[in-house]
């Protein structure tokens, strides 16, 4: 899901995530870095732009831009039924519309209920910390 959020943010071109920062042989020779690579286009730029606008409108009109201070956020919330009479999982997925902070995210709170009310604040806390950390690293 996060790859799709990133693709919407990047005009339809995803970034293929990597989980390794680097690969080093036992002798200390660098074999490769964990730099992410661009994937193949999965959406037209026009479709990605429309989705971005709709997701930004959700933040402004539905979730409340004030709940995400200082963030130019595009997001979509959701709930996923899990069966067995259990409370649904809460989802909140999106990205920041800011080239200084190229962040896409997905938050899932198992059996959390409402996506925007439960997973949204978790996303805000994580994004605020990430932006603060990125600012600190630039200084």
Automatic annotation (TrEMBL):
Q: What is this protein called?
A: Penicillin-binding protein transpeptidase domain-containing protein
**Residue stretches making up the Penicillin-binding protein transpeptidase domain:** 2-127
What's the short name of a Pfam family annotated to this entry? Transpeptidase
MF terms from GO for this chain are:
penicillin binding; peptidoglycan L,D-transpeptidase activity
The record's listing under PANTHER family reads:
PENICILLIN-BINDING PROTEIN 4B (PTHR30627:SF24), PEPTIDOGLYCAN D,D-TRANSPEPTIDASE (PTHR30627)
Q: Name one GO biological process term.
A: cell wall organization
Q: Which residues cross the membrane?
A: none
The lineage, from the top, is:
unclassified sequences, metagenomes, ecological metagenomes
Identify the species of origin: bioreactor metagenome
Q: Which GO terms describe its cellular component?
A: plasma membrane
What InterPro entries has UniProt attached to this entry? Answer: Beta-lactam/transpept, Beta-lactam/transpept-like, PCN-bd_Tpept
């Amino acid at each position: 899901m996060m790859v799709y959020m990133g693709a919407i943010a990047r005009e339809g071109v995803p970034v293929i995530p990597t989980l390794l920062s680097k690969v080093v042989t036992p002798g200390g020779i660098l074999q490769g870095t964990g730099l992410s690579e661009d994937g193949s286009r999965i959406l037209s730029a026009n479709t990605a732009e429309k989705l971005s606008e709709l997701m930004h409108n959700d933040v402004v009109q539905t979730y409340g831009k004030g709940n995400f201070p200082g963030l130019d956020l595009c997001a979509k919330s959701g709930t996923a039924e899990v069966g067995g009479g259990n409370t649904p999982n809460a989802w909140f997925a999106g990205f920041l519309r800011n080239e200084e902070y190229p962040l896409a995210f997905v938050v899932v709170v198992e059996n959390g209920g409402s996506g925007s009310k439960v997973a949204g604040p978790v996303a805000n806390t994580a994004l605020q910390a990430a932006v603060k950390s990125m600012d600190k690293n630039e200084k």
